[in-house]
Amino acid sequence: MRRRSVWLALLAAPAAGCAQQIPPAALQLTQESLAQRQLQTRRFETEDESLLLSSSVSVLQDLGYQIGSTHAPLGFVFATKQADAVEVGQVIGAVLVAVVFGVAVPIDKDQQIRVSVITRKVDRGTALRVTFQRVVKNTKGEVSRIEALNSPQLYQEFFDRLSKSVFLEANEI
Question: Taking the CB of the first residue and of the last residue of the chain, which one, N or C, has fewer CB atoms within 10 A?
Fold first, then answer.
């Protein structure tokens, strides 16, 4: 009997974990996320997804990104770029902490900027969504933060260049 109780308890334990439910609010989009999606997405009046992807690759390379992977059938491009992440305020703070407390504090050193481009067909055209994020590493080589880049100027510059590139490629200029 005791053995049977142990087996039942072992079988019931995983099932108890499955009983947790996802809160309904977790699946709802906020006004902020909707605004961000609008910033990241543009609709083009072409159904030629490969034209948009090749134009996106050209724009990203012009901006200094290295193309990591592309998959035209899925409408996907991924690219990265290395950049300096040193901030003057952080350096000053680290120096002050070192002088006052005699402790070395790591500061942000390098960052990798990641870009993903995704296309999908929509009614009489194609929607293209681009997202930028950065992974910052400190002087110890540890990841100090990962964050989305939400600058409207960044997205506007990308889409302005993309529109020009699409026009040039479509007209074979």
Answer: N
